[in-house]
Amino acid sequence: MSNQNETNALPPKTCTIERLVTLQEDVEKVLAGQKTATRRNGRYADVGEVMTLQNHQYVVEKVYSQSLGELTDEDAKQEGYATVEEYKQSILSIHPGMPWLPKMRVWVHEFRLIQD
Hints:
By secondary structure, this protein is α+β, with helices and mostly antiparallel strands. It is built from four helices and four strands; from the N terminus they run H-H-E-E-E-H-H-E. It has helices at about 5-10, 25-30, 75-80, 85-95, and strands at about 35-40, 50-55, 55-65, 105-115. It has a four-stranded antiparallel β-sheet. The chain is globular and about 40 Å long. It comes from Gottfriedia luciferensis. InterPro entries: ASCH_domain, PUA-like_sf.
C-alpha cells in the first residue's frame, strides 16, 4: 500500500503538527537525534508533513496506531528512552492520574531530519 493510500485510510487529524513535539526536553532529544517518534492520543500529522524545530525540519514518514501493550524497548528508544518502563514512568509523570492501560491505543508519528 502506498503512503497516499495509508493517509487516505487514516481518520482526520485531531491537532496540528506544530503541537507534535512541544516539551523542551523532547525538543532537545529530537535535535540531538535521540528521538525519532512521538506517540499521542490523537493524530497530529499526515505522512509527508514537515515539522520545524529551532530552524531544523523533520518530515513525518509514518503514522499508525499502536496499543501501549505492544510497545517494545525499541519503540521506547525511538522516543528517547532506554526501556518501555522508563518511557512509561516519564509519560505518567507528565500526565498525573492517567492509567497505563495495555489496550489503550495511541498514534505513532515517526519522523526524520531533512538534510539541508
